[in-house]
Specification:
The chain is α/β, with parallel strands linked by helices. It has a domain of about 230 residues: Rossmann fold, CATH 3.40.50. Helix content is about 45%, strand content about 5%. The radius of gyration is 21 Å and the shape is globular. The chain starts with a helix and ends in a 7-residue tail after the last helix.
Length: about 350
């Protein structure tokens, strides 16, 4: 009888092992994850450039592997890390400018993102970060190194079959349009959205021309609910709630991105681009944090949680929370690792699932 039970247990585990191997094998059809964008996906490129917008110090990264502050704007991992792992690749995507890694590391995943950037080149000028055209230049350099490292045929396969994650736009509004009078004098908010959509289209066509085919274009979050914007809303006398105007802009911009995705899939042969829209799931988390296992959504874990990020969020501040899993936001602008995981799981299920086949 005992032998029969052991045999059943063995067969069950054998089935599960085979099942998971099939998932991994299927997922491996994406040989690499390539990342462009801003701080929502920057794995540490800003560490290597002259800007005040950095996070390569604790308490950033305190829940990352080894408690290491890598330059990710979170207490732990960010969405590209979870996406890479879900596709059977490494559980993190390294920054291209990180001297700890080389082209052999980047063959299955590489991040060109720069915190503080946007589709608009003038957005990157605000905090002296990498403009998106520079991210593309690094991508071209990466391609040349990849060919030299793995050969032209394999490099071509990696480039064409990789999943490209594109995540930016928030800074274009919060650090540019709503901050710089010159931008507002040039455009109405709707005109600026149309301008950005044109830039997004040009960017996608450019990397398409360089061989990219599988792409995820990330929409804007409810940016009016970021703790920093709540604080500004309060200081302006509007109350302690979210900035509804900013959230409305995010919704409208995401609708325009959706239209762009439909257009590109029709006009660019062989492209597969999807819109990964985090707005609704993010808003659900903010409005009903307890439903997702959070205690606090209005303020962030780091420091007072109302306006600090970057150098204002350092390990010497005694106000920083001890358990980031209770908070939706890590600093006044960026989610905690737990929030990133929930949003990424949603995106994987609702947008990226087609890339598993």
């Amino acid at each position: 009888m005992r032998d029969k039970q052991l045999e059943c247990v063995y067969l069950r585990w054998l089935f599960l092992a085979q099942f998971f191997m099939l998932i991994i094998t299927d997922a491996a059809k994406v040989p690499a994850v390539v990342v462009f964008g801003d701080s929502s996906v920057d794995a540490g490129n800003n560490n290597q450039i002259s800007t005040i917008l950095k996070s390569n110090f604790r308490p950033y990264g305190r829940d990352f592997y080894g408690g290491k502050p890598t330059g990710r704007f979170s207490n732990g991992r960010i969405p590209p890390d979870f996406i890479s792992e879900a596709f059977g690749l490494r559980p993190f995507v390294p920054a291209y400018l990180d001297p700890m890694y080389n082209i052999s590391d980047f063959a299955e995943g590489v991040c060109f993102a720069s915190a503080g950037t946007g589709y608009d080149n003038s957005t990157s000028d605000v905090l002296n970060v990498l403009p998106v055209w520079k991210e593309v230049e690094y991508y071209k350099d990466y391609q040349n190194k990849l060919i030299a490292n793995v050969g032209e045929q394999k490099a071509k396969f990696i480039i064409s079959e990789a999943l490209y994650l594109i995540s930016m736009g928030t800074n274009d509004f919060l650090e540019n349009y709503y901050t710089l009078p010159n931008t507002q004098s040039q455009y109405s908010v709707d005109e600026y959205q149309v301008f950005l959509i044109g830039l997004a289209e040009n960017f996608i066509k450019e990397i398409y021309g360089l061989g990219a085919r599988k792409m995820s274009l990330t929409g804007l979050p409810p940016m009016g609910c970021l703790p920093l914007e709540r604080t500004t809303n309060f200081l302006n006398g509007y109350g302690e709630g979210c900035n509804d105007e900013y959230n409305t802009v995010a919704l409208h911009f995401n609708q325009k991105l959706s239209g762009l995705v439909q257009k590109l899939n029709k006009v660019l042969p062989g492209i597969r681009v999807v819109l990964s829209d985090p707005y609704n799931i993010f808003m659900q988390i903010v409005l009903k944090p307890s439903s997702f296992g959070f205690d606090v959504a209005e303020v962030a874990c780091c420091s007072s949680g109302t306006f600090e990020m970057g150098y204002m969020c350092d390990q010497l501040n005694p106000l920083t929370c001890t358990d980031a899993t209770k908070y939706v936001f890590w600093d006044s602008f960026h989610p905690t690792e737990k929030t990133n995981k929930i949003i990424t799981d949603y995106v994987l299920k609702n947008s990226l699932q087609q890339f598993f086949t």
